Structure to design on (361 residues):
């Protein structure tokens, strides 16, 4: 299978780890080649069908948890959605809510969110829905809901105007949600976000007007990668739109992963892996592939100073053959490269909304 696969086998056989932590899954030397997996004996096997890919995918998710912390079991706590106030627009109702993410020793952890429900829904069928995740902004959930910030990021509002039920939770320590996830046993804010966003899916599925199999995730920047993280761990998310959300680690800031390693993300990137992309047990090439064959729409501006467009193209080249050759779903992985900076341009948003409507129909 070539020298790269031989190196991959060697990597898989080695039980070495960083910071003395044993790994529960092999780490792949070539994270851009998604068409093979390592069997229990460390031998490289070709990915030819969905069951082959599930082996590699399980390794990807395990290695993501090495960095983010272990994904908790789904909460059995009642959601206890509380409606705090409602505002009316011409086309939807905007409800300010809180919902229970999980229960801690001092009581339930309540996440603030906006819930947008269209007024005119088709009487003969339930509506599509989307978890809308905000960018790095002090106002958090208010931005996608259309209550502040640039109108180009009002995607929860615009989707509601198109007939989607949308929910917009605050990420930890943005908007009205102040929390210390590390004091409650988390090793990353990223994993706490995944847990909260997974419960936002529960909120949508609890609504009588929402079709439980027609749920998407969408986000820009911080929300762009959080939409990917949520979908990776929650198969109920059937489609994803990610704007300015990622690139391969080695292309991020010329390989300096400091921006990923602070307490708002994943401190283990510094503590265990020295902020070195070549020591990381997973990469976004693999994360993007982990969503196959679900529908993914990627907006990657040519002049994004956060996420190098060439690093996005690396992910495209990695995941493309998986969608095309293994799942025969080439049309479900779409990339746009607008001539813009770190933005979600109007034409790209319209194309993304059309994509979601088509894939969730």
């Amino acid at each position: 299978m070539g020298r790269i696969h031989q190196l991959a086998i060697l990597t898989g056989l080695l039980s070495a780890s960083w910071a003395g932590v044993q790994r529960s899954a092999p780490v792949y030397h070539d994270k851009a080649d998604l068409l093979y997996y390592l069997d229990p004996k460390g031998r490289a096997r070709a990915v030819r069908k969905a069951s082959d890919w599930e082996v590699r995918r399980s390794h990807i998710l395990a290695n993501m948890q090495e960095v983010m912390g272990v994904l908790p079991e789904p909460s059995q706590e009642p959601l206890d959605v509380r409606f705090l106030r409602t505002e009316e627009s011409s086309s939807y109702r905007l409800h300010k809510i809180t919902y229970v993410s999980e229960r801690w020793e001092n009581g339930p952890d309540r996440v603030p969110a906006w819930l947008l429900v269209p007024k005119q829904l088709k009487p003969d069928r339930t509506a599509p829905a989307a978890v809308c995740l905000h960018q790095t902004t002090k106002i958090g959930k208010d931005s996608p809901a259309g209550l502040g910030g640039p109108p180009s990021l009002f995607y929860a509002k615009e989707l509601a105007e198109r007939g989607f039920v949308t929910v917009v939770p605050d990420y930890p320590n943005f908007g009205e949600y102040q929390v210390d996830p590390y004091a409650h046993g988390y090793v990353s804010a990223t994993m706490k976000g995944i847990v909260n966003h997974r419960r936002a899916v529960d909120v949508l599925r609890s609504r009588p007007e929402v079709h439980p199999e027609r749920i998407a995730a969408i986000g820009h920047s911080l929300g762009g990668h959080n939409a990917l993280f949520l979908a990776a761990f929650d198969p109920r998310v059937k489609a994803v739109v990610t704007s300015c959300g990622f690139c391969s680690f080695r292309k991020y800031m010329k390989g300096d992963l400091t921006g990923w390693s602070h307490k708002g993300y994943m401190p283990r990137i510094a503590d265990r892996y020295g902020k070195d992309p070549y020591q990381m047990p997973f990469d976004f090439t693999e994360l993007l592939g982990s969503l196959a064959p679900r529908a993914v729409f990627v907006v990657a501006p040519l002049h994004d100073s956060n996420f190098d467009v060439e690093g996005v193209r690396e992910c495209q080249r990695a995941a493309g053959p998986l969608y095309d050759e293994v799942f025969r779903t080439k049309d479900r992985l779409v990339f746009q490269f607008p001539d813009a900076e770190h933005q979600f341009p109007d034409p790209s948003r319209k194309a993304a909304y059309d994509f979601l409507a088509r894939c969730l129909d």
The longest helix spans residues 50-68. Confidence is low (pLDDT under 50) at residues 1-22. DSSP finds nine helices and eleven strands in the chain. The radius of gyration is 20 Å.
